[in-house]
Amino acid sequence: MGDEKVKEEALQILGLFQALPRLVVFDLDYTLWPFYCECRSKREMPSLYPHARGILYALKEKNIDLAIASRSPAPDIAKTFLDKLELKSMFVAQEIFSSWTHKTEHFQRIHRRTGLPYESMLFFDDEDRNIEAVSKMGVTSILVGDGVTLGALRQGLTNFTGSSSSSSEKRKRK
Ligand SMILES: [Mg+2]
């Protein structure tokens, strides 16, 4: 499926939901692309998972902000690849640094930079421990198996809708 077709399908999926996230945050390695940056050279031309670009374009078209949260120990390679893939300008925040504290600090920085509440964010990552730590902050977090896909997008939006309606229920009850 080409990028345009994926984008079209992603837009259809987005159209099914009333409550959309304000910001979608992506991990890089094994979420947007199928490799670890530290195992590659800057001189190479990287490629994304097949659905990644179409999904990014669809979110952008819906005026949903995009950000990166990566614990890659090779941020220079990651940034070079984002540039080569012509994706650099798509993201309002790019937090790429290695850390022992999962991705808590990455999200604190994204929150400070954007001013958006954690509850308005949706996050995709391929590592359990990142998902666990970031969901505790209030971010709807989705574990991806083989990179971000249209199926993962649908799952993410379903979970986001569920958690935003339950938090508005909570507010109503107060
Ligand atoms: Mg990863």
Account of the 3D structure:
The protein has a single domain (3-13, 22-159), classed as 3-Layer(aba) Sandwich (Rossmann fold). Helices cover 44% and strands 13% of the residues. It contains 6 helices and 5 strands; from the N terminus they run αβαβαβαβαβα. Strands 3-2-1-4-5 form a 5-stranded parallel β-sheet, with helices on both faces. The longest helix is centred in the C-terminal third of the chain and has 24 residues, at 150-173. The protein is globular and about 45 Å long. It starts with a helix and ends with a helix. It binds magnesium ion. Residues 27, 29-31, 125-127 line the site of magnesium ion. Magnesium ion (MG) is lined by residues 27, 29-31, 125-127.
Radius of gyration: 16 Å
User: Termini, distance in Å?
Assistant: 47 Å
User: Using DSSP, what is the number of strands?
Assistant: 5
- The run of helices and strands is HEHEHEHEHEH
**CATH third-level topology:** Rossmann fold
Average pLDDT works out at: 94
Bound molecules: magnesium ion
CATH architecture tag: 3-Layer(aba) Sandwich
Shape: globular
The CATH top-level class label: Alpha Beta
SSE class: alpha/beta
The side-by-side strand order for the widest beta sheet comes to 3-2-1-4-5
Query: What is the CATH superfamily?
Result: HAD superfamily/HAD-like
Helix content range of the residues, please? 40-55%
Q: Main sheet, how many strands, which sense, barrel?
A: 5 strands, parallel
Number of domains: 1
Low-confidence stretches: none
Q: What is the percentage of strand-forming residues?
A: 5-15%
